[in-house]
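Model it.
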Amino acid sequence: MAAPAQSKAPLASWRLRLLRLSQTMVPAIWIVGVAEFRRWPLGPIDYAALIAFLLALQTIRRRVRPTERTIDLHSIRNPSLIAALVGGMTATMALLLGGVFESLARQPEPEHAPWWLRTIWHGACAFASAYAGFFTRIEASRLAQARPGTGSAT
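Modeled.
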């Protein structure tokens, strides 16, 4: 019976790594989208520098704050729904603030993308970032509680 549990551990570890990577890629996609809406040209070196910068920020963040409190998963029936609610609340704020920002920001002539599309872009990227961030914490808690002898950290 121990063999199936051991074979799931590497898969869960890879899933956690991909979730952490998605926390870096969502801001990169957001920045590229904003640059496209504003018609700022980005070349291959710009993309590489952006990804390198965001990965460096992620590494610094993980070193400064290496452990986060685990989430008690016994009281949560549907962790994906909780992550979606967190993402939805964040997206609502981003939609409001992004809409105000986009209405005040100067647009290149002729307008490349309509106001509503630029506003939804901010909300969608905020949702994806918050969902990935919270779901990463849920997955890390799941892994920590699955290991024998570990519990929730306080």
